[in-house]
Amino acid sequence: MNTWLSLLLTLGQLWPCLPSMQNHNTHKMNQPFATLQRVKRGWVWSQFFVLEEQILTEPLYVGQLKSDSDKHDGTFKYILTGDGAGSIFTIDEYTGTIHVTQKLDREEKPFYTLRAQAINRNTQLPVEPESEFIIKVQDINDHEPKFLDGPYEATVPEMSPEGTSVIQVTATDGDDPAYGNSARLLYSILQGQPYFSVEPKTGVIRISSQMDRETKEQYFVIIQAKDMVGQMGGFSGTATVTINLSDINDNKPKFQQNFYYMNISEAAPVSSTIGKIMAEDSDIGDNAAMNYVIEGDEALLFDIITNNETQEGIVILKEKVDYESKRRYSVRTKAINRQMDDRFMKEGPFEDTTIIKISVEDADEPPVFTSQNYVMEIAEGATNGSFVGAITARDPDNANSPIRYSIVHSTYLKRLFSINAHNGTIIITKLLDRETAAWHNITVTATETRNPEQISEVSVYVQVLDVNDHAPEFPKHYEIYVCENARSGQLIQTISAVDKDDSVEGHHFYFTLAQEATNNSNFTVKDNQDNTAGILTAKHGFSRQEQFAFFLPVLIVDNGTPSLTSTNTLTVSVCDCDTEASAQSCRFGAFMFSMGLSIEALVAVLACTLIILVFFLAMLVLRQRRKQSLFPDKPEEFRENIVRYDDEGGGEEDTEAFDISALRTRTVMREHKSRRNITTEIQSLYRQSLQVGPDSAVFREFILEKLKEANTDPTVPPYDSLQTYAFEGSGSVAGSLSSLGSGMSDVDENYDYLTERGRDFKQLECMYEPIKSATD
Which Pfam families does this UniProt record tie to the protein (predicted)? Predict the structure, then answer.
């Protein structure tokens, strides 16, 4: 088709698409614009531009579509399809004019893609090919900058140098950043000078002047972001930034007083609190932490510790003070920061010094002994009233009260020692024995006579000095034996000695025969010079028949001053050494000898003892046999019994007259013996029962049946029982109560007499009550 298609735009309503005119300052022209390309043999549309946010009172003309072939006779029909066709954008199908019917917002939809076509109204065939074009919504500055990440808060150390970065703030603008300056922002500071500044393009906040936290700890900075590069007529937004200054150690401790005054009683115990001091530090946290130190010799008497929570210095007593010795102390004390900042060391050490004046207050103190303890000596055996020693105590106060002494805590010691209450001299009141107790621990108290509550105690250790008052003796009893065939000069025993006394140079004992035994021609004593001695034979051979034992007195002398002697007697027993049991026989003989018995007498005693023992055993055996013969068949009698009952039962139907379980005990069932054939016995009893009972075939059949069951049943226990029901006899007023003699019917019987018999016939009355009722 050789036609030209053109788009006609009304110049009064279109905005030429020229780059030099795309400026927001010209948006008051309120003119849309489009780009038109005319192409031979068809049409090609580029794009239209429509300003956003236009307030429409009526549809706004955008442009017109027109075909060169249109004769304006109404045969051409223009059709518009695509985004917003028919709702936002409309087209006149006869003239091809396009209108926008709604206010457009670029931030919601920046462009619309539409398609245009011209068809023959009659044939509905296209007269021009379909062409696509775009209507762009042109941006205007209708959004203000916003800080989406606010509110902002930052922390920076105090005294930071100028130019230190604090925080960066960022604002956003909803306008098109690619068109014009609507979204181009510029930052400025409205509040916070001269301490802070902001970079105009980046929004970085920096320090412009050093700040001290102790002067002001928190700052509020207001930052403004303005579009249109800050030009007049643009929109702006603000944000508040809270900036906190963190602490650094830039302040040293400072005492508020040059002198502190405190008092302490001389009676105060060690570790008592005297008082508190405190140095102030403007810093906080660890930067304000400090230690207190006492300088000089006073550090030996006083100490100071730091309360980590309050940073107070607590002054405590390290050693006891004495009012009479020194009444005032001047304590030099320092407060030193624990942490230091090298940047401020040039300003001097971070510490401060003060003086603590401590006054000692007088107190009524207990007596003071001249020594912490006393050690005294006295020889054992000293006479009563002998002087042991003396103790001294004084009143440390200016009053100088007299002192009274006494021994406490032991009644036993009070019997041995006595103390003078006025001068403190100690004497003994009883003889002392070192071997009983070598040391005595005495507790002595000193009490002020003017104030008895002031009491002090001291320990007195009394050592009892040894004197040689115990003679040496044998350490044990010696059992000495000599063989009959012993040779002369043979060693038969080595002896030693002990002494209860204490020798400074060590014990040394001398052994000899006693004076009365010097002419003894049987044994000799040899001193070994080492506190032992040997007993030697002085002849060949000994005879037991002539003399069974010898008594040898030995004299022992110690080396004490003066020396003491003792005589100790040894017993030497003569033994027959021809057999292996000679030593044992000798010991036994020695024992008998010590008891004063001969061998013959010992044999006689043993023989009598054996006869008595045999007689006693024989009596026990005879008594045991007699007990066994009294009841030889007793187990069998327990196993098989015929039990008779003299009470009257109710006949063969009375099954509760006898309880056989009483016979079935564990004791009886332990022994399992062969059953005796008791058929003959039962038959004999059966015949006896026939003599006293009725001759009833039923009764005989019942007895035989029970006998057969008992003989053939292997599960029943190995014993039998027979129940007999005898007649009462002619002397009974009530007559027979047995049912064996009853007739076939009880209708004619009268049982009224049962009620007259009392409680014993109550059960029978209940049993015959139905028969009585039937009769009535």
Answer: CADH_Y-type_LIR, Cadherin
User: How far is residue 211 from each of residues 162, 190, 191, 463, measured CA to CA in Å?
Assistant: 10, 19, 16, 81
pLDDT of the residue at 758: 67
| CA pair distance 625, 402, nearest whole angstrom | 96
Separation of alpha carbons 494 and 119, rounded Å: 158
Distance between CA atoms of residues 235 and 319, nearest Å: 79
Residues paired with 195 in a beta bridge: none
Q: What is the mean pLDDT of residues 318-340?
A: 92
Q: For the chain, what's the residue count? A: 776
Q: Is it true that the peptide bond before 635 is cis, omega within 30 degrees of 0?
A: no
386, two tokens:
């002998």
Q: Are 640 and 720 in contact (CB under 8 A)?
A: yes
The model's pLDDT over 434-448, given as tens digits with 9 standing for 90+, comes to: 888 889 999 999 999
Q: Which residues, at least 6 apart from 491, have a Cβ–Cβ distance to it below 8 Å?
A: 534, 535, 536
DSSP label at residue 706: H
Q: Are 7 and 45 in contact (CB under 8 A)?
A: yes
Separation between Cα atoms, residue 724 and residue 649, nearest integer Å: 9
Write the DSSP symbol of residue 579. Answer: S
**Inter-residue contact 237 to 228 (CB < 8 Å):** no
Q: What is the pLDDT of residues 269-307, one digit of tens each?
A: 999 999 999 999 989 988 899 999 999 999 999 999 999
Question: What is the C-alpha to C-alpha distance for residues 66 and 93, in angstroms, rounded to an integer?
Answer: 10
CB 104 within 8 A of CB 54: yes
Tally of CB atoms within 10 A around 708:
10
CA 330 to chain centre: 49
Q: Is 169 helix (H, G, I), strand (E, B) or coil?
A: coil
Sequential DSSP letters for 251-311: ---EES-SEEEEEEETTPPTT-EEEEE-EE-SS-GGGG-EEEEEESGGGGTEEEEEETTTT
pLDDT per residue over 229-277, tens digit each? 877 878 899 999 999 999 998 889 999 999 999 999 988 999 999 999 9
Strand pairing partners for 480? 572
- pTM exceeds 0.90 for this model: no
Alpha-carbon distance of 338 to 144, in angstroms, equals 53
Give dist(CA 440, CA 524) in Å, integer.
46
Q: Report pLDDT digits (tens) over 567-618.
A: 898 999 888 876 543 444 565 555 555 555 555 677 788 889 989 999 888 8
